[in-house]
Amino acid sequence: MHPILKPALRRGWHDLNTVQFGVTPAHAVVLGPVDVATGSFLALLDGTRGVPLLRDEARRMGLPDRHVDALLARLTEAGLLDDATGGGASAQALRGRTEVMDRLRPDHAALTVTTGEPAEGLRRLAARHTMRVQVRGAGRVGAVVASVLAAAGIGHVDVRDGGCVAPWDVAPGGQPVSAVGERRDVSARRVVRAMTPARPPRPDLRTTAARPVEPEEGDPPLSLVVVAPRDGLAVHSPDPAAAEDLMAAGIPHLYAGVVEGTGVVGPLVLPGGTGCAHCLLLGRVDRDPTWPRLLAQWGSNAASRQVQACDLGLATAVAGLAAAHALAFLDGELPSSTGARWEAAAPGLDWHARPVCPHSECPCGAGERGNGQETSVEEEPHDTMAG
Questions:
Q1: Where are the strands (E) in 161-284, listed by range?
Q2: Beta pairing partners, 340
Q3: Beta bridge partners of 3
Q4: Half-sphere exposure of 204 (CA within 13 A, CB side)
Q5: CA triple 111-342-185, angle to 5 deg
Q6: 86: burial class by Cβ within 10 Å (0-12, 13-18, 19+)?
Q7: Cβ contact 185:160 at 8 Å
Q8: What distance in Å separates the CA atoms of residue 250 and residue 204, rounded to the nearest whole number?
Q9: How crowded is residue 23: how many other Cβ atoms within 10 Å of its Cβ?
Q10: Average of per-residue pLDDT across 81-88
Q11: In the predicted model, what is the mean pLDDT of the chain?
Q12: pTM (2 decimals)?
């Protein structure tokens, strides 16, 4: 082990004997009391020395071995210590790829802040390269989500969509202006490939057939599917049939999109464990039996064939939040969209969460493990015509 104080956490001294690591309350740690010799010893924790050499240096400063060991244990317990050589073979291989690491240094720094164990941040970053994520939808939200995931180190990001890029699909970080008229999925995959720091073998972008959910030979299994259809209604009120393959295969999936003036991120569905699209539908029908009739009308009227409202700023915010939640899940955490939907409506853009509870009548089985709740919390529209 080559201990290093996490560089991402800024250091500041309250006084001669008290040091604070980190700025924000979520991750800041105050260490004290720290004597002068110990304060000087902290400067040696820069990743260039192993523990035996650190002990030698400490003895010359008048600090016994037990003091050094206790300090290192204390710093490790507080989540302040990283290991410049740890993380296993995959992490070590990533360290050797300077060009890749230069692209991913901010992501690595962020992971060191949110993980406690030394070298855990780099281990998770290396693990991302082995993961396969599918994004269903290549519009203003989906293409940006795919681009962000690829740039953050996810090694295999596949994009599925039909049709050709329209002028209104273009977005910063997503479909470029030069792609207008090209196939949406082919263009989005090109963007993904350009943003990937460590590029996997070049795929055949000419294929027009949708590949199945099951991995082809040589593909890693799907870790996550992000459902980001260009039709915002399919996110606000997703069709359970569209996710049947994911539910059957037990593949986690996250919804994201914009409907009219509202951005939606979630739910992150863990099949059999959290509320799914069918649970959401059943809960809504419980409260409003006319809901299926409304969905049928909204899906078939002329407005559904027009260019839909999708504010670029809101779409970008949705894509960023969805990508962040996806990365948290892929890194082994459960983001707040697990079994819930985050929504923000223009013009106020106040993000709030609405739980999507398992329904006891849903065949997904999550209701049998849940807490007995059967409905999701959702505001009803205002009746402006009521007397």
A1: 222-227, 253-259, 262-269
A2: 355
A3: 83
A4: 6
A5: 75
A6: middle
A7: yes
A8: 27
A9: 12
A10: 93
A11: 89
A12: 0.89
Determine the number of helices (DSSP H) and then strands (DSSP E) in the chain. Answer: 14, 12
Beta-sheet strands, E only, within the chain: 3-5, 11-15, 18-21, 29-31, 81-83, 132-136, 156-160, 222-227, 253-259, 262-269, 340-345, 352-355
Compute the distance between CA of residue 304 and CA of residue 51 in angstroms, rounded to an integer.
65
- The Cα–Cα gap between 104 and 84 comes to 16
Strands 262-269 and 253-259, by their bridges, are antiparallel
Q: Do β-strands 156-160 and 132-136 pair in parallel, antiparallel, or remain unpaired?
A: parallel
* pLDDT number for residue 324: 98
Structure confidence by residue, pLDDT tens digits, 200-223:
545 444 443 344 445 556 678 999
Neighbours of 124 (CB within 10 A): 23
CA distances from 183 to 157, 161, 207, 216 (A): 17, 8, 11, 22
* Per-residue pLDDT reduced to its tens digit, 221-271: 999 999 999 999 999 999 999 999 999 999 999 999 999 999 999 999 999
Query: What tokens appear for 17 in the block?
Result: 């004997």
> Which long-range contacts (C-beta less than 8 Å, at least 24 apart) are formed by 291-300?
291/237, 295/233, 295/237, 298/233, 299/233
367 band by pLDDT with thresholds 50, 70 and 90: confident
- 65 phi and psi, to 5 degrees? -60, -40
At 299, is the pLDDT very low, low, confident or very high (cuts 50, 70, 90)? confident
